[in-house]
């Protein structure tokens, strides 16, 4: 990693020894269209914010060839953000021994630079995952957008309009009932976020623990189950094997992609078992290739709006 002198930003060039596909690698960190913490601008740059122990940081990523990315950082957390870049860009993600299933091999060839990111920021992955529990994703993304815009802080540096930094744990823990209500978040999910925020320091430590131990600590918090811990592991912990068991659509989609038939969670795990420890990687590839698109049955469910209750 090479630093580039800049008057207003800490700028580094990250050069990998293998292909790096910036967009798909960072895409899981975005929670819906209009996510205030993540955006792409018309010049092709990826912008994101993060809240680190040293403070908030804004990052701007620009691909510069097949293996090179130029990243600018602003804010009190700029130096720490730069130091974390190799993990964020998936340098720890190894595909040694991985052979994609036949249904995903075309995607694997096209997405040779796809990495499993490791943000290391557990609460930043955990809160949106809790908001996505047992609701339609559009509802969860709307709530995330509302809460970050209302309770987050301004992004450091010359950030695009509307970019914000996530609230800190103290803010999440102290959010009043009426704020959750305005965001359309029911009391159960709101209480889960508050419980997580009160033990945020212990949860952030999971970024340094082995995978099974990390997920066990996450799931020790009431309201955090196997699905939620997997969603966090995929983003914050760099876990290429974490499968989101309990997802409303995933098992059917994976079954359809691999066999042409829908299946349940048990069937999905059986189908993915030969690909451990790369089961999440297989799922990512299947979705990149749009194979995991099981035909819909019946009408769409209505989207509940808790703000009017």
Automatic annotation (TrEMBL):
Residues annotated as transmembrane: none
Keyword annotations from UniProtKB, A to Z: DNA damage, DNA repair
Name the UniProt record assigns to this protein: DNA-3-methyladenine glycosylase 2 family protein
Organism for this UniProt entry: Isoptericola luteus
């Amino acid at each position: 990693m090479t630093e580039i002198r800049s008057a207003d930003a800490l700028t580094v060039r990250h050069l990998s020894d293998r292909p790096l596909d910036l967009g798909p690698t960072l895409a899981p960190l975005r929670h819906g269209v209009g996510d205030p913490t993540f955006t792409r601008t018309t010049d092709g740059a990826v912008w994101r914010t993060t809240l680190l122990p040293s403070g908030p940081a804004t990052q701007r990523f620009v691909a510069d060839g097949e293996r090179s990315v130029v990243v600018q950082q602003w804010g009190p957390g700029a130096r720490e953000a730069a130091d974390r870049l190799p993990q964020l860009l998936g340098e720890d993600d190894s595909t040694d021994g991985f052979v994609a299933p036949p249904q995903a091999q075309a995607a694997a060839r096209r997405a040779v630079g796809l990495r499993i990111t490791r943000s290391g920021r557990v609460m930043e992955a955990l809160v949106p995952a809790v908001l996505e529990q047992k609701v339609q994703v559009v509802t969860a993304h709307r709530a995330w957008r509302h809460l970050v815009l209302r309770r987050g802080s301004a992004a450091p540096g010359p950030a695009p309009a509307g970019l914000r930094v996530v609230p800190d744990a103290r803010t999440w823990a102290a959010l009043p009932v009426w704020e959750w209500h305005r965001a359309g978040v029911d009391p159960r999910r709101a209480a889960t976020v508050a419980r997580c925020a009160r033990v945020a320091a212990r949860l952030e430590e999971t970024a340094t623990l082995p995978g099974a131990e990390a997920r066990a600590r996450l799931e020790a918090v009431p309201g955090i189950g196997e699905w939620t811990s997997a969603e966090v592991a995929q983003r914050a912990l760099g876990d290429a094997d974490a499968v989101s068991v309990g997802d409303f659509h995933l098992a059917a989609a994976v079954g359809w992609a691999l066999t042409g038939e829908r299946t349940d969670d048990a069937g999905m795990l059986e189908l993915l078992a030969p690909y451990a420890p790369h089961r999440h990687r297989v799922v990512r590839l299947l979705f990149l290739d749009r194979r995991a698109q099981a035909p819909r049955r019946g009408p769409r469910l209505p989207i509940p709006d808790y703000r009017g209750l």
